[in-house]
Amino acid sequence: MTLDKRPAHPTQPGSPGSSYDFSDPGAKISVGEAISSIFSTYFSRFWQLYGFAVLGSLPMLLFMIFGEFGIENVDSVTVSRLAPMFVVIVILSGLLNLCLQGAVAVCVYRVLRDEESYFFECIKTGLARIVTLILISFLFLVISMGFCVGAGFITITVIHTRVAWLMLIAAGLLIIVGIRLFLSIMFSIPVCMVERLGALESIRRSVNLIKSNYFACFVVILVIAILNIVVILISSVVSNFTDSIVFVIISSLLVTIPSGLATVAIPVLYYQLRAAKENFLVEDEADIFD
Questions:
Q1: Is 119 exposed, middle or buried (0-12, 13-18, 19+ CB in 10 A)?
Q2: 70-102 burial by CB neighbour count: b if 16+ within 10 A, else e?
Q3: Which end of the chain is more exposed for a tag (fewer CB within 10 A), N or C?
Q4: Strand ranges for 158-281 from DSSP E
Q5: Cα torsion for 19, 21, 27, 30, to the nearest 10°?
Q6: pTM for the full predicted model
Q7: Taking a C-beta distance cutoff of 8 angstroms, is the pair 52, 263 a contact?
Q8: How far is CA 92 from CA 42, 65, 89, 95, 264, in A?
Q9: Is residue 32 part of a domain?
Q10: Residue 155 belongs to what H/E stretch?
Q11: Does residue 6 sit within a domain?
């Protein structure tokens, strides 16, 4: 069956006449093409996408500068004074990064359409969906806690058997399940932003979208993670030779470069999965964020 015209504005999965009618559930993405697209997307709008990453790391960086480095002698009283401030910083940083992940999804959408993207406009679009993004984050936390409780119960049970090979198998299976769980729901934020679904629907959509592409997505994320780890290790080794606050700032800015790449990877993979499975070509669609 051939169709002459594809729909212009698919936002809801399974809606009549949407581009989901072109679904090919078993389609696979290319690891090489995905990695190439991630790098090209990132460096085509480097300063903007890097700016999102820097902004996301700013609260913790300021805490380090004015908290840790602003105090000469750290004692129990100082720690108790800094603890509430640290909790507030973590919460604010989490909310900010949720908004920025939404902004990155919008910016990547603009890049793939070869359109101009504006820093604060992307942030504003991400902020408009912040409530749903918070709910997604909460559901992710609940799922993760459920997994951790289950993993803890299994671990204790296996340890009591004192059978080495059984402990190794259990550890391996738990690692595999944990990775698969993360991969299954990692597209929830791009789904929420682009398809404008609710929190639970976004997670379900993410789970369905990655099917048959777990290994490819895992390899891509692993490559990006290794790059991040290498940069962090180099920064850590160099930091042993100096405790200068200037170095801390420069080091943080350098480490943020590959972390910014990681934030771009997920929306790029999301668009590639939709292109492979649903014939969704972002450059041919009506402007979702218009």
A1: middle
A2: eeeeeeeeeeeebeeeeeebeeebebbbbbbbb
A3: N
A4: none
A5: -10
A6: 0.81
A7: yes
A8: 25, 17, 5, 5, 21
A9: no
A10: helix 130-161
A11: no
Domain membership of residue 289 (yes or no) is no
Q: Is the pLDDT of residue 75 over 80?
A: no
Q: Which helix (H) or strand (E) holds 113?
A: none
For residue 267, which of 145, 33, 103, 117 has the smallest C-alpha distance?
A: 103
Q: Which residues contact 130 (CB under 8 A, 6 or more apart)?
A: 95, 98, 99, 102
Q: Which long-range contacts (CB under 8 A, 24 or more apart) does 53-59 make?
A: 53/100, 53/256, 53/257, 53/259, 53/260, 53/263, 54/253, 54/256, 54/260, 55/96, 55/100, 56/93, 56/96, 56/97, 56/100, 56/263, 57/252, 57/256, 57/259, 59/89, 59/92, 59/93, 59/96
Cβ 58 vs Cβ 45: under 8 Å: no
**Band of pLDDT at residue 17, cut at 50, 70 and 90:** very low
Q: Which domain holds residue 117?
A: 39-284
Max Cα distance, the chain (Å): 74
Look-up of token digits 């939709």: 274
How many distinct structural domains can be found in the chain?
1
Residue 211 counted as domain residue: yes
Q: Kindly provide the b/e burial profile for residues 19-46, where b requires at least 16 CB atoms within 10 angstroms of the residue's own CB.
A: bbbebeeeeebebeebbebbeebbeebe
**Is the pLDDT reported for residue 189 higher than 90?**
yes
